[in-house]
Amino acid sequence: MNDQKLKINRARLQESLEAFADFGRTERNGVTRLALSEEDRLARDYFRSCCEDIGLDVNVDDMGNMYAMLAGREKRPPVVMGSHLDSVKKGGRFDGVLGVAAGLEVIRTLVENNVTPPIPVVVMNVTNEEGARFEPSMMASGVLSGKFDKETMLAKKDVEGVTFHEALRSIGYAGSIENRLKEASAFLELHIEQGPILEKEQLAIGVVECVLGMVCYEIEVTGESDHAGTTPMSMRNDALFAAMDLMKEAREKLSVIDDDLVYTIGRVNVLPNIHTVIPNKVIFSLEARHTSADVISEVEKVIHGMTASSQKAECDVSAKKLWERDTVWFEPALCDAFERAAVSLGYSQKRMVSGAGHDAQFIASYVPSAMIFVPSVNGKSHDEDELTLWEDCEKGVNLLLETVLSLT
Length: 408
What we know:
Blueprint (H helix, E strand, L loop, with lengths): L9 H12 L16 H16 L3 E4 L5 E5 L8 E5 L13 H16 L8 E5 L13 H6 L5 H5 L9 H7 L15 E7 L4 H4 L4 E7 L1 E10 L16 H16 L7 E3 L3 E4 L9 E10 L2 H17 L6 E10 L2 E2 L2 H14 L3 E6 L4 H5 L5 E6 L15 H18 L1
Parallel strand pairs: 3-4, 3-5, 5-14, 6-13
Antiparallel strand pairs: 1-2, 2-4, 6-12, 6-14, 7-10, 7-11, 8-10, 9-10
């Protein structure tokens, strides 16, 4: 039975999301709003104005993260809701921004109903989650959590040679280190699923238990270039054919490790990439994701085993680990709170994992954190066709509201 006393205003939420989408809207109704761009500045200004209109103080830290706080009756660590406003090129209208608009709508609902929470409630916009202009992704949350060095991140450049620090100053959002999120009772991130599971299973809510651990390798196959028309097949050291054999071997061996393991060959470079020349080098990426460190270890054994023993068509094979991350488990008590709220609202839900990275995974290292997903139509994300139905957005924000009320 639904005994929630407060409900969010769906029409207002929709209006806010469409207003945000105007800052970088593409011809196909997607969004290009790269971090610290003019479009990002406009979205930030709009967010600030919405917060100030309801009497919230908005502070900015040294990485450009924005914090709007509704004071509580007691001065205790706040409950923080948030996500990001930046997008990839030709991305969607919901990725990231839904979590910011959701936090804003929760506070608007509290204010209009004259609810002063026992402890402060904050909505946060985290800078440069996507990493589409300045790499790496999740840059600002990485600095907050001590995963990345601040000075190194400030010096990162975009393709035009503009540094992160220069761009941050140019849009007027270089704030004070004193404003950083240092402690909180909870960090809650609402996000679109970016995958097909919830829609396929006709579920309203995904309670995210963790962000998958992963490992990424670069595999290099070196052969020899010769003329494509004059070199007999038996006398070739074709790096591409050798790489294809390795890819097939990897798929066969990885597919039997665990049903929940996902793995991808997402980037392939073939050199010299001329149709009349036998390739002399192929470099391809191989990444894998799973909750279990043991399963990831099995993946690495496969990679090292097939490259150490392989001499495919007389080609040399080597593998280099580019990066890895451990599985990040969210705070069980917060996951339970989300689940209880879903049950109280009559929303169908399931526990699930996130294969994609999110700011919450870094913030979880020093603040109790958790996430919820709402469905993505056809599983689309990072694409102009990305869509989450308005009723699903509404359910997600109502669940966030109910959970915040239960925690304050």
